[in-house]
Write a structure and sequence with these properties.
5-stranded mixed beta sheet, Dipeptide-binding Protein, domain 3, signal, SBP_5_dom, transport, 27% helix, single chain, 2 domains, 16 helices, alpha+beta, D-Maltodextrin-Binding Protein, domain 2, TAT_signal, globular, peptide transmembrane transporter activity
Length: 475
């Protein structure tokens, strides 16, 4: 059986518009413009067949899945692949290049604190009504209310400019603002008289129309014959199924699943034996640990945190869990290893130095720290944290990683110590450099939990477009 790759499926389902180079970002006299031939260019030399149903398994459900039983809303959608049903104004390709989607053009003013979007005309929602600026403004205002942190942090207000125009007034200049419009939650939905009802009808502008969803298990969507891009989709139907544990490999073996996203790396050989082709991402998500510093906990001392960082054996995690000892490892920032500004840590691991830092901080005999909560969003996670705990223990640091159900994990974390919550593991996906680094910018994140001269210098470096200064912030 020929397996449809995730890359090809996403290209066919959500092909966008032209690549936007950094030269455009730095020159406000140039407008970003879509390329009508983008889909045909992708398909050049190919003869895709039409028809059929793609059934995919998803081992990584939406982290907000347990927060609502109304799964037709993109915030509570089965997984994070929202573009099967909805579209955004922009999107980011696999090379981290920005492309246009529902926006036909994007133009900034000279100071880059105001951005104007011109929309494609004739884009129809699944119910047959046309998408206009009213829908975009209503959707963006909803996202700014808390659903999309990047919009909440960067946009002061939106403004309608006629039937097909929208203006974004930013909190401060941002040459890379269009990347925020590509977030998987930042989709365009139908405007409603009651803003609280926006999105719950499951109606989008995407290549497939939602017809059935049980957001605890699966969804079914059928081909949108009036899709605004014209070419495709080629499939008649798409179905997504949550596949925890061994249900992913078992479903693939039995032919019930045509593809599986985010497979357990420990099952690669089993999938290959079943005829699968494995496609690895160059970037991937990162696991990071949130250590609230507003309470009287020893890790408030920077020396303790540095000791923890020096003690963790990341190479061992790569070798044992991912079978890739040469893979990149994080540098304690949100920056992805594929970003040009990424700076590899100068010392991968130093247990001796970690112990010296503990002793300097007043803990020569080691230290016991509060438990860290996590839920296994990815199937391999329960195998990661024993390695982390063991490597920390070698430096005299005792931490228990407490596994919790993913259903309701976010409310559990947030139920105490607002706005920081419990100590917990979090996830961050690969983004462009500004988004990666701005997560720790106290001016753009309400829980960055960082003050003082170093925080102000970091913010200054993050908010410049100069690559060399960005690299200093990353380092």
């Amino acid at each position: 059986m020929t397996q449809l790759t995730r890359r090809r499926f996403l290209q066919q389902a959500t092909a966008g518009a032209t690549v936007l180079g950094l030269s455009h970002l730095l020159d406000p006299t140039k407008a970003f413009a879509s390329t009508p031939s983008i889909v045909s260019d992708m398909l050049a030399g190919q003869t895709p067949k039409t028809g059929g149903t793609l059934v995919y398994g998803q081992t990584y459900p939406n982290w907000a899945l347990g927060q609502s039983n109304r799964g037709a809303h993109p915030y509570y959608w089965l997984d994070l692949l929202t573009r099967s049903v909805w579209n955004t104004l922009t999107w980011v390709d696999e090379d981290f290049n920005l492309q246009l989607e529902l926006a036909r053009t994007l133009t900034a003013n000279d100071t880059m604190d105001v951005w104007d979007a011109t929309l494609h005309e004739g884009v129809m929602f699944h119910d047959g009504t046309e998408m206009t600026a009213d829908d975009v403004v209503a959707s963006m205002n909803l996202h700014m209310g808390g659903g999309v942190g990047l919009l909440r942090a960067n946009v002061a207000r939106t403004e309608k400019l006629g039937k097909y125009g929208v203006r974004f007034h930013l909190v401060q200049p941002n040459a890379e603002f269009p990347y925020a419009l590509a977030e998987y939650r930042a989709v365009v939905m139908k405007a409603k008289e009651n803003p609280d009802e926006i999105g719950y009808d499951g109606i989008g502008t995407g290549p497939f129309k939602l017809v059935e969803i049980d957001n605890a298990r699966q969804f079914r969507a059928v081909r949108n014959d009036d899709y605004w891009m014209g070419t495709g989709p080629f499939l008649d139907e798409v179905r997504g199924v949550i596949t925890p544990g061994n249900s992913a490999i078992n479903g693939f073996r039995s032919g019930q699943l045509n593809a599986v996203w985010n497979i357990d790396p420990g099952q690669i050989e089993q999938f290959e034996d079943a005829g699968a082709r494995i496609h690895a991402s160059a970037a991937g998500d990162q696991f990071y640990i949130n250590l609230p510093k507003n309470l009287n906990i020893p890790w408030n001392d920077q020396r303790i945190r540095k000791a923890m960082s020096l003690a963790i054996d990341r190479k061992k995690v790569n070798e044992i869990v991912y079978r890739d000892a040469s893979g990149w490892t994080g540098n304690d920032s949100h920056m992805s290893g594929v970003n040009p500004e990424f700076v590899a840590r100068p010392v991968e691991r130093d247990v001796k130095q970690a112990r010296a830092l503990l002793a300097e901080a007043g803990h020569p005999d080691g230290i016991k720290l509060p438990a860290i909560a996590f839920c296994p969003n990815f199937p391999e996670e329960p195998r990661i944290y024993p390695i982390v705990s063991e490597s920390l223990a070698e430096a005299g640091i005792e931490i228990v990683f407490e596994e919790r159900p993913c259903d309701g994990f976010s409310p559990y974390v947030d139920s105490v110590n607002a706005p920081f919550g419990r100590p917990h593991r979090n996830l961050v996906g690969p983004r462009n450099p500004f988004i990666n680094l701005s997560r720790a910018d106290f001016q753009r994140s309400e829980n960055a939990d960082w003050v003082g001269a170093s925080a102000e210098e970091y913010s200054r470096l993050v908010n410049t477009v100069a690559s060399a200064r960005r690299t200093r912030a990353c380092a």
